[in-house]
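User: Please run a holo structure prediction.
Assistant: Happy to. Please share the sequence and the ligand.
User: Here you go; the ligand is zinc ion.
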Amino acid sequence: MDYDTYSSGAVELAVGLANTQYDDPRRLAEFLSGHREWFARRTRLTLSAEERETVADLGRLVRAVVEADDEAAVIDRLNELLCCADVHPRMTNHDGTLHVHYSRDGAPAVEQLSTTVAVGMAMLVTRYGWDRLGICDAQDCQDVFVDTSRNNSRRFCSETCASRASVAAYRARQRMGAAAEWSTPGHAQI
Ligand SMILES: [Zn+2]
Ligand SMILES: [Zn+2]
């Protein structure tokens, strides 16, 4: 799928937020400074406690959209997410390519983030379908991801989780094999 636009970047921002430990102020600050390029220049990224709570709610809402398991629930949750948006589209070429920003110039960080994330998610679901959003299948990982594979078959958030899961599956098969061998006649049961 053609997945290399400003709005797909906005979805990566949403996914990144949902996968951040946003209840931890230090982690949240790292997330914001790590995504500095998404904020207008001179945006203050140091948040008040109240603003941090708003961002945490936003992260929870993004995850709720991903967790929804039918289209009606996705629509409801996306509409809830869109309530956090304050959309003021603006043309820009600040990075050398023409694109539309969803948020007004001079908006506080939280407003920019909420608006970009909400519209990005809504655009993705509209264009590619809600089943492109998934949660990692690996044990001990709850990260959300966007499936950009041709046949929509992705199961893991990252290469790391995919290889961790395949090692675990291999070991499980080996254990099953060993157990089967022990239960065959000729082996003493222990
Ligand atoms: Zn831009
Ligand atoms: Zn994972």
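The two ends are 54 Å apart (CA to CA).
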